Input
Amino acid sequence: MFDDLRTEQALWTGKYVDDHVLDALEWSKEKYKLQIHQLPEGERAQIPKTLAPMIQAYVQKVNAAGLPGDQIIKDVTALKDKYEKEFSK
Output
């Protein structure tokens, strides 16, 4: 019975947390004059290059433990891409 709710619960929890974050940001803007700055596209494009050594170190560590590190990263990336398209606002 509870297993049948796992997708519904995950979606509900994700929406709840996302909505809470948006509310908290709005509150912070009003109460504390919070400013949010977006990185310029050129700097955002550098993020994968910056993260690459950390990801490679993870893959090596996981591979050394006998797990398929490269496949884990491929799977995580594919799921991230899939759900970003499906659930992005």
User: Anything to note?
Assistant: DSSP finds four helices and no strands in the chain.
